[in-house]
Amino acid sequence: MKFSEMGLHPQVLEALVPLGYETPTPIQEQAIPHVLRGSDVMGIAQTGTGKTAAFSLPIVHHLAENMMHGKAVPRVLVLTPTRELAAQIDDNVKAYSKHTKARTALIFGGVSQHKQVAQLRKGVDILVATPGRLLDLCNQGLLSLEWIEFLVLDEADTMLDMGFIHDIRRVIAMLPEQRQSLFFSATMPESIVKLSRTILTDPIRIEVARVSSAAETVDQRMLFVSQGAKRDLLVELLNRPEVETSLVFTRTKYGADKVVRYLKKNGIRGEAIHGNKSQPQRDRAMNAFRSGKIKVLVATDIAARGIDVKGVSHVINFEIPNISETYVHRIGRTGRAGHDGVAYSMVNEGDERKHMLNIVKLVQRDIALEEGHQWHLDLPAITLADAGGNRPSRPGGGQGGQNRNGSGSRQGSSNRNKNRNRNRPPQGGGGQDRPSHGGGPRRKKKPKFKGPKSQGNAS
After folding, report:
1. Do both 48 and 135 map to the same domain?
2. pLDDT at residue 31, rounded to an integer
3. How many domains does the chain have?
4. Does the residue 144 lie in any domain?
5. Is the pLDDT of residue 449 over 60?
6. Predicted TM-score (pTM) of this structure
């Protein structure tokens, strides 16, 4: 199937030509038709597989067909956990909506709000935001979410890991009950499934890769090393000729800065990126990494979410994450868009062995142990058998590609008008959970839309 065969608006298709988009990726091919039909969608796919276009293209299509007279009001809200990911999505949406009249605004904290407020006052159709600054502007009376038609939660699992659950619920309490909600993420832990039940209505579940599976294009390796020798092993790895660019992960901001200082002492240029860095500092580090001025970026998990740099040859887990799903996100920074990549994991003699065992169980595959370095610790191997799993055959291509619709999922016969007017469960206020579908008293029907008047279908 081609994008031109998916029923997208001609202005959207025109924007895709210079981007080189011809054939949709599996997540795009499966998600776009459902979003166009008005279904709520829960999409699960590895990083780098095109999730942003999967939700953005049909949304821009809808705006192109239903433009409004007068000053634009926010009709689309995309929530993301980090500034970097928000900026990346904003860039993509701007490219997709280039030939439409849709306006976008990027909302995040850590910088002055003045430019963001100025954007809002000019009129905005699509908001890409992090939860904290969004709520701040709403509480100041500078922003209203009462006309939102689409809610997108991207990397919802990370937002929960970062403690945004209450902020998300506060935002949802400000949204119209009649809206279309979309979840997209690389992993779907049980906490996200529970949250989705309070937000999505009869969602279509789309999964183009096994939940929490690692990309098949990434060569995963373990190295056993004492905690004290990790920095020396890191220097040795980074000096290998095949390591062109590397993203190094630490657990803490302080640890990232220490690693950068040690690398500089050993003649390796690198920069740290984490929450204590100002936005200009983070931008300078990212630009230097993208341009090749530095070959190493040392990051914490939260700061690294949303980093999309072409050609990252290696990911190095300087410290093993205690949350197994985080490992999948980390190594997904390499081996993107069909390219090969390598992921090294330095496992110490302590709790990291338990963390690595849980990771092996999660990804359901053995990870090769590399012993050919001078700091190798002679410890028992960590295998899938130790984790209580079976060794499955490797899936062809790692895509899967089948819809997994629950018994309540709506099929293709549904249409946008019906879905727009369907009854939704009431929203909770003050950060409380909303009742499950069909439970509790209904809210009063919202008054008729008195904002900008529709122009009807665009020619």
Report:
1. yes
2. 95
3. 2
4. yes
5. no
6. 0.61
